[in-house]
Records
---
Amino acid sequence: MDRNQLVKWLEAPAKMAHKYSLHAVYFCTGCGIIEVPPTITARWDAERFGVLPTATPRHANLFLITGYVSVKTLRAIVRTYEQMPEPKFSVGFGSCPINGGMYWDSYNTIKHLDRYIPIDGWIAGCMPRPEAIFIAVTHLWTLIEKDMADGYKRYREHYDEYRANQERVLGKLEWPPLFPMRKDQ
Amino acid sequence: MNGALTDRLKAIFRDIETDDVRDGRLTVLAPAASVLSVLRLLRSDGYGYLQLISCVDWIDDGQLEVVYVLSRYLDGEGGIGGGPIRVVLKTRVPRTNASLPTAIEIYPIAEPYEREVHELFGVRFEGHPRLTPLFLEREYEIPPFRKDFDTRQYVEDVFGSVPAVGEESQDS
Amino acid sequence: MRELELYFGPQHLGMVGNFSITLKVEGDRIVKADANPGYLHRGFEKLMELRSWIKNFPMVCRMNVVEPDSMEMIYSMGVEKLAGIQVPERAQFIRSIYLELARVGSHLFGLWAYANMLGFDTVAQWAMYHRDLVLDLFEELTGGRVYHIYIWPGGVRRDFPDGFEDRIVSTLHSIGGCVPDYDNAFFNNRLFRERAKGVGTVTREDAVAMGGTGQVIRATGMEYDIRKVDPYAAYDRVPWDVHTRTEGDAYSRIWVVRDEMIESVHMIFKLLDAMPKGDVYNRIPNPFKWRIPEGDAYVRCESSRGELGLYIVSDGGDKPHRAHFRTPSYPHGLTVLEQALVGESIADVGNIMISLYVVAPEIDR
């Protein structure tokens, strides 16, 4: 361990702990799931970066949305995201969550994922390689370090806008609002 | 040998058209009312493997064409051997109030295929036990796979109109 | 006993792929199962009608993410049949080698999923590592690890680089040399036998009535393999066997997968020996002005999960009028799964689903 890290560990141990143990919730949302098993197994070993898959969103703080998002999947994604405890970070994986990607004219996939849940970073590619996932993890460390990975805080602040967008696409949502909604003036 | 099946079909059903067997495949065009009887005959003739029920939208003719692709597993497996390996049975229904009887009693595998054709093209299958949506979550006025459903316009109307979050409160 | 409704939903550690099953259980026994697909529906076939024939090639391989090469092959076969394009001999051999490598990779992925489901994590890590060695070969040949876009109508896009055949042989030797380890750790393991024997049995009559293909039907004793029944590419130029078992349960299906993997490796060696020299593609017409004559065709091939078919219709224009993929996971995931799950325990749902090799994006397209 080098000396700069030691100072950071003493000053902000919680932040360092969040960085170096990003546990990803195991949800195979789309195409990109094909590059996640190589990442978490022996050859490209993500555990040396602290990234492990967990079974339930209650134990996770990283949500990797791998690939395109259809309307039915969006419902499951919003529920999973809301079940994760804070602080939580979400990363869009592949070119499809960014702007629709190859399915830009499909009637069943949503086009911009960051209008429905907050995204801290994107990984471009179709498919991104395992090394791209690791570069993204190191970028996420830098963002956490500088307190710029504030997706969960944005969700809390703009919750009624996010929920309005979700309801536009999914219809009436059957779960109650996560945060108290701001009453319109 | 190849002509035997064609002759039998023509002898029993007056109102169907068939071609010669080409490339191991026999194409049969039948009206909607005789579809089940033709399927029953083919099933008893050894074509026990329903590979696909598909639908093609011929919007210029104002008709939907439902296609049944039948085959058998191995030669001699159940029923009379010989004859073409594949029979493609096509039938046309009008685009408004499209409906056909279900083929589930003859081929149990028809159940998900008919559900999909109903959902994406709007063809009703009378007698189907579970004609609920298979893939789609939202309601669509025109079934999405029909040619007059403009998917790009739909995307702009529904997904393009979703505003980005935080745009208004940038100066807060 | 009371009945409970459980969602074996998309976010579940036992679910590989975005698929959901609604289970009605009494205690630990499943009484009724309803498959709930649609999480990955993109309206693929509608999108294909809006793009020209050549633009569909990069799209088609994304339909099935575990083995995209069989999708490229079936679309090429359909277009070639409609347009009457011939494929040179060397390209047929290259296609067969390429598809067999994809089959090995796909079966190793299935072995990772299945071994994880039963708790054999070590074997899962080995399987994924060996699949990565195969993906390295693909990356050298085509430039991409997962989506290759290598087969197009008229042949393949480029020839093998220098020395590629030696690299294929050495990679397959290093994978094949580990087969005794796999057998000791997994296939001959008493725990695998106890978890998988008698579980998820699909009899031959049920499989035939429900349109089951691939290892579901080969595990019941029928030697039904499209590469033998309706040969395409270069599969009828070399001798090889179809492997079957008789019981039809999860144990037999996984053993059929293992035997097929070994047979694929031997087949690649034979194909490499018999491959002639020559061109690797015939020129296709100008892709911007390519119109295919009217007609329809149904073609089929054997992917790693079963019989993959395509019903393609052209109305004489520059875009497909209708392309309908008959994917093998469609009957396996929707009717065979619902029937095979009745009476089993909740812990075996993942076990049965992976042994039937249900790949969710294929069902929804």
Note: The longest strand of chain A covers residues 62-66.
---
Amino acid sequence: MISFWEVARRAETGPMMKESDFDMRISMTAMELAKEYEIKYDPSVYVSSDNTMADDVWRAGIELLLKCGVYNVSNKRVITFEEHEVKEALKHVVSEFEIGKGKDRIKIQARGVEDSKKSTIFSGPFGVETSLDVFVPLNQAFIQEPLVDVLFHGGHIQSICGVNTIRANSAFEVIAARVYAELMNQALILGGRPFMPIVWGVAAGVSSLNELGADSFMPKNPEDIFRAVMFLPELKLDDVLLSKTAHFMNYGYPLYAGTTPVIGGYAGDANTAAIVAVAEQIATFLVFGAVVNHIGPQHMRYRSQTNPASLWMNSVMGQAVARNSKLITTTSVTTAGRPGSMQMHLEAAAMAICSVVSGRNLLGPRPAQPLYPNHHNPLHARLFAEVAHAAIKLKREDANEIVAQLVATYKDTLDFDKSPKGKTFEQSYDVKTLKPTEENLSLYKEAKSKLIDLGLELA
Amino acid sequence: MHMSKEEILKELREGVLNYDEERVKKAAMRALEEGIDPFLAIKEGLTPAINEIGKKFERMEIFLPQLTIAAKAMEAGVAILEPALDKSQGEKVKLGKVVIGTVQGDIHSIGKNIVATMLRAAGFEVIDLGVDVAVDKFLEAAERAKADIIAASALMSFTKVMQRDLVEYLKSVGARDKYKLMVGGGPVNEEWAREIGADGYAEDAIKAVKVAKELLGLK
């Protein structure tokens, strides 16, 4: 299989082109391939059952990657791949991976379409600004959710030492990174799962230095921690990402790699975005040799991932990858409805069902940007995981029917000016006992009851 | 063969609507050959077409690649017609100059590219500085271009703070009142824009055009 060192070499020597030309090359090639393979988006379908289309999207995705490559925005060079390299690499996919220690050691697996294997649940307060006073309790509340298998990031520390919003690449990023590591250790120990697997993105900044700033105080051995590396949409990376990857590889960390193809952006409509997403899914494996390969089905207009086009794209792309490879994959879920709302529960359930029957593991749920401080609620993760585990009993046709009913409840309130506003962690939980408030618990029970009425077998 | 004014205007419209740059160029040259007022050719040929493209994009009936190609076709037509405009017409065609970029520390470009494309299509002259743009580079470009608006995009919580720094920098060097300042991006909202003292905020590219026009007192 092609090594990262070879990829990095190609990033230094590949053909040069303008970034805008690369963006348009992706768009035009995806459109040509969609036409050639007759891949069409059907807005009346949320979870596809079309195996032929899934296989065509897979082939088109590989063609797209071979024709376009991956672009290094730092030096304007294209990293190209040969067909035999893709085929060879896919033979070396790790389809099962164990991580963590003791009772929290888990096996993450590649999943097939309509697979009876449970989805691994990655969750945590990722992406949300988290104040220092609730950082530990909020993470602890996620850690204490038994169905959360892997803690995903720990929330952003954005204010520290009197600096209200930490600036990218500033000294406070590095200071906050060290504090982040300290607090994450505390949360894991207090939560009773000190060796729980983590996806460790130092959520205290954006620079490479802040990643390094936390390294010496990370909770455990490198082999038990996923480090996160993300492409820029579409099929782009930069020197910072490559150098971070080199560092992570030098120290033996397993990698969690992904990207967020944007429907409406250069990826185009849902049909072409599905092709681009397959290319990206393969590319994250080729470039990073990642254990877990992630897609966030983003949408230009909605900015959340539970809209009808994202659901369809995720199902087709997911099935394409699951039917034709043994890649371990995840799909993320960002919602228009905010924490503490019925809509967030139902949006998350829709994407969980769609993803699980399409062969994915799951990450989420999280409210979409713009995010408000401390707006997270681990009860959403609980129901999300329960729904995911119930969905393994569903066929795609049944899943589509349930998802259609769920979408009907929120499709008119996906725009942020209409979607329900959220509550902070402190408003949703007793921060000392880490018990959800009565109101929060009632909402969870009501959402669960709605999902049972729709046909999900929830305990 | 002679073409009527209506036929040429239709060609200009159809060229943009069909993403056909060559067709637009030919129609624009034909307009000049047939002695059609270039201002009319832009206002009644190209502008309605790009407005329709913008609406299609807003409804997500078309996507960024089509928007980019249509805007490029429109620009090619304007480039041919513009030199033939008299001074007063030229001022009416160009709505204003916008310097746009993604702030320092942030390398996300898609949202900024869409806003730049829509502003261009609407008739603004856009100077796109790309990504990872330092505050002084925004000002230098704005001074050089004699811009009306500076537009700063940020896609991460840790980089939106650079929008605040941009306001402070402009104030510190006495340039804040010379330009209207617009901000946008995933983590940005109206509240943040107000807090840092920006003049305008838009949550998407369509609204960005509306806000830019409002800031310059245009309809």
Note: The interface with chain A takes residues 60, 63-65, 68-69, 104-110, 113-114, 131, 156-162, 164-165, 186-189, 192, 203-204 of chain B (CB under 8 Å).
